Amino acid sequence: MESLTKFLQNLLWSCCFLQRSLLIAKCGKPHAIGEMLTLPAIGGVISTVMHQDASSVVRSIRLSNNSVSSRIEELAIDVEQQLCKVSQTTKIALQLDESTLRDDEALLMAYVRYIHNDVSKEKMLFSKPLETDTRGETIFMVVKKLYEEKNIPNRKYYCVYY
Q1: Which domain of life is it from (predicted)?
Q2: Are 161 and 95 in contact (CB under 8 A)?
Q3: Which range marks the domain in which residue 34 is found?
């Protein structure tokens, strides 16, 4: 019973870390904001509301730039896996958008649209740098390679727009 309790506590902590990392990613600020803003806020809430010393709790929370970055990467991989699974079994519309960043760096973004439980959904599938150029053939090869890696059949497209 004790091992189950410890397992559930670890699971709750993991959910909290992932949720916090997602919030940090959504705000679009540097990941160090977690250490600068979130930890003091958590400490203040625990001290004020629970009337407890918050130092041990705050010390146990990992909010370094590296831990937040790795959690955000885990979330992104999970979303990509879920969307690839949907793309394997559902007809999708694929939207491609190529953008040029500073220093002539090109980025390809792909969005999928699909129907799930009679509700239209739109999600970002990936964002990948274009290594050489932004020609149609290069973009096609990037998408083709991803679909081959993820075992997504080409016949599941019902629309591709660029």
Answers
A1: Eukaryota
A2: yes
A3: 2-63
